[in-house]
Amino acid sequence: MVPITSLPGPRPGLGAGSAGLRAPELSEPALSVEGLTVRLPGREVLRDVSFSVAPGELTGLIGSNGAGKTTLLRAVLGLQGLAAGRVAAKRPIGYVPQKVLLDPDLPVRARDLVGLGLEGTRLGLPWPSRARRARVDELLGSVEASSLAEARVGTLSGGEQQKILIAHALARRPKLLLLDEPLANLDLKATQEVVALLSRIAKTHGVAVLLSTHDINPLLAVMDRVVYLAGGRAASGTTDEVVQTDVLSALYGHHVCVVRLHGRVLVSTTDEHGEQGCDVAADAWEGAGPTTVRAVVPAPGDEGSSS
Amino acid sequence: MFSGFMVNTWLGGSVMAAVAGLVGFFVVLRGSTFAAHAIPQGAFAGAAGAALIGVNTLVGTGTFALLGVAAIALWSRHGRNDVVTALVLVSLLGVGSLFLSLSTEYAQQAFSLLFGSPLAVSSSELVPTAALGAFCVALLAALYRPLLLGSVAPELAITGPVPPARAELGFLLAVGVATTLALPVVGALLVFSLMIGPPAAARQLAGRPSLAMGLSAALALVTAWVAIAASYETNWPVGFFVGTFSAVWYVAGRAWAAWSRRARASVGPRARQKLALGRAS
Amino acid sequence: MNWYHALLAPGLFANPSVQEAAVVGALVAAVCGPVGMFTVMRSQSFAGHALADIASTGGSGALLLGLSPLLGFVVFGVTASGTMEMVGTHRRQGRDLVTGIVLGASLGLSALFLYLTATSQTTTGAAVTILFGSIFAVTSSTVWFAVGVGGAALVLLGLLYRPLLVSSVNPELAAAQGIPVRLVGLAHMVALALAVALSALTIGAILSTALLIGPAAAALYLTRSPGRAMVMASGVSLVVTWIGVALAYDSYDWLPSHQGWPVSFFVVLLVLATYALARVAVWRRVGPRRRKAVPAGAGWRGER
User: Fold this and answer.
1) Given A42, A105, A307, which is nearest B276 (Cβ)?
2) Residues 94-153 of A with CB under 8 A from C
3) pLDDT class of A79 with cuts at 50, 70, 90
4) What is the ipTM of this complex?
5) Residue B276, min C-alpha distance to chain A (Å)
6) CB-based contact B265 A42, cutoff 8 Å
7) Cβ contact C124–B108 (<8 Å)
8) Topology at the third CATH level for domain B5-280
9) What would the pLDDT profile of A239-276 be if each residue is shown by its tens digit?
10) How far A132 CA lies from chain C's nearest CA (Å)?
């Protein structure tokens, strides 16, 4: 199947029939998760989650706060014990944790941090080496951060720190790149830059990129697949397969509305409106006009699927 | 044990223990253990200075405690004050080492000042002790809500009526005053132990802040009474008993927390299941 | 009389105890730079200070049992550091609390040991010596022991340099790279305990904390790469120690009573001044909040 990522926004023409089209002819997945169940003390965070990510694909892990995104990423990294299921990930894995706020007093330049991504696990002192220096320069260049090389990482802005952390994660040439909420706290411009960067990394380096976010919209144009988490369960597939009123309603366990407009998606999880409510929501949104539309995050607390 | 001069110790010791327990609640809540340790140890240097120029020890320790408080509060940067605390502490001790090297008679009382003595409170000191204790309690009462808010949600406290920096200064001042009270009985090196052991346990045992504060003061009182009595009987330093007791409180608090967590976890799923069944039917 | 006698008292460089103090000071400075940088980066100043006092407890305990105080210093320090790291939580507040509890119990024991050791006159002396220490009290046998302990701390840090640096920058990042963060933290605490035992033993608890924290904190303000920071911290430690020793030697002539002023007083004063200058320098360069990025290329280049 030809990648359809160049199309802007959702692809209305594709129905459920496209399911299963992309599996066999692509190389084996960089990450495959089967029947993953994770229990933290007192509650089940993930239940029977299955999906896979192929090399060169950018996959969005979408879900509200507390849906289990970070837990899922930690399970993939092997930092989280599994109650059931199987996670097979190609290593090395690059990882950018959530909300890293580096201390401005750290005597660590962007260059040093990327270098530590390269060989941070090695024992002994690092001796100066031309090869490493070149590789660090190359990595910084690949995230368009060459000019930041000599600055202390803690003093950089959020978007700049994000780029450096991506370069750090890329240093060991990962097959799989995991990013936890990389777009949180970024403004629109920085968000676009980081999304474009990640998309390019996936395509040019053939890396499987899995990033979590609570807002699906910045990713619509570049996302190959989506894994939608709600109440510990997941639905996965292309955006058009998953982000549908019936699919998400089944996932949430109650009726939700998916409204598409002006190349953006609104998922409204309020339980108040019935079947007709979606049109009301769409109308209200239409009335508001595209410029004032904000991406709507699923309502907090996905009570629908407990038990 | 309860006759004559020991009455002063019992009275003064009770006041200082209650105050230490109350101040300690905030020490533990705010994670200011290092400051609570540095201020008394720095104040010890003041005692050396007092001995050198021949004034009352209480004046010397009080002055140095205040110096330490002011320096830590002024130099601290948001979120990272451990470096400043360490440097203020060593500066005070550095000056203290100079005092010590210049004075010759001081060494006699150094041991009891460092590690405490059950005979440290004279009747003339009872009134100042009570007054300072009352001041300390009043200060904590006035700052109760800003301190609580600042400890739980620092971002919210910024918009409050008392700026966090000023609340911190008031809090450290309370630590300084409590230090001055407790130092002669418990010893400069062990005052902070009385300020962290009881509240650390109280925090695990009581959920509400007011209850935890009261419990902390009560545990501190028990600690001080037992330590004074034991020291009187054995002649061992008061500080030894205070330090040991604080560790016991802490371990007991942790054990209680672990036990109640396990009890909750083992009961939890069944209770939840019942709840779910009830909802389904 | 040579020209420098106007500045320094005669006989400074010929005096054997000054020579020994200079050698030990250099050793302590070399160890304190790297260990101190990680300690400040990880906000473990309290542990660094506490371990000095705790090591002294080991010293007094060994005194009671008739063993070598050196052994007591190291064994007690390493045991306590392990306890702190194993019991401690990830949050700084919980960690400091555990440090405080261990320190309190240890100081209490120290009080008991000193009380039981001998008559009040000598215990008083011992207590004060342990607290304040003196660089001039170093003996030749101590020097070799100190070299061993300091060397062990440096080797440990050198071996774990990169994993430790990553986990000091961000523990999550390190864990994702497959670094055993707790184990690395434990190793750092052991290195810290060794370094502190070394310096508490040779130069006293006050100076131990001062040299561990002050120069490293100043270097963190002034440099941008970890390697530079370590070297600079060691350099500052060395310079202030040597100046302090020279001034203390000189101070015999300052008062008519010919009482020497303690080395710790001068060194602490110099450390404080260095730290203050570093803060002022940074404040002048980038303003009080230091939130903005420093322009690229304005700082150190070429290293690594």
Assistant:
1) A307
2) 95, 97-98, 100, 102-109, 111-113, 115-117, 119-126, 128, 132-133, 147-153
3) confident
4) 0.87
5) 6
6) yes
7) yes
8) ABC transporter involved in vitamin B12 uptake, BtuC (1.10.3470)
9) 888 888 788 887 877 777 888 777 778 777 665 555 55
10) 8
Q: Hey, of A43, A103, A303, A307, which one would you mutate to test binding to chain B, going by the most B CBs within 10 A of its CB?
A: A307
Q: Where are the domains of chain B?
A: 5-280
- Which residues are paired to A230 by β-bridges? A233
Single-letter amino acid, residue C100: G
Q: Which domains does chain A have, with CATH numbers?
A: 16-98+133-241 (3.40.50.300), 245-305 (no CATH)
- pLDDT category at C19 given cuts 50, 70, 90 is confident
Q: What is the pLDDT of residue B164?
A: 80
Separation of CA A152 from chain center: 27
Q: For B151, which residue in chain C has the nearest alpha carbon? A: C93
Q: Is A146 exposed, middle or buried (0-12, 13-18, 19+ CB in 10 A)?
A: middle
- The CATH number that domain C11-285 falls under is 1.10.3470.10
Residue B266 Cα, gap to closest chain A Cα (Å): 9
Distance CA A162, CA A201 (A): 14
Residue at token pair 């239409």: A286
* Chains near B (3 or more Cβ pairs under 8 Å): A, C
A256 or A237, which is more confident?
A: A237
| Alpha carbon of B36: minimum distance to chain A alpha carbons (Å) | 25
Instruction: Confirm or reject contact between A165 and chain C (CB < 8 A).
Output: yes
- pLDDT tens-digit readout, A32-50: 999 999 988 778 889 999 9
- Burial label, B115 (beta-carbon count in 10 A; 0-12, 13-18, 19+): buried
The partner residues of C296 in beta bridges, in order of sequence, read none
Rg for chain C (alpha carbons), in Å? 20
**Position A204 pLDDT exceeds 70:** yes
Q: Cα(C88)–Cα(C43) distance, rounded to whole angstroms?
A: 14
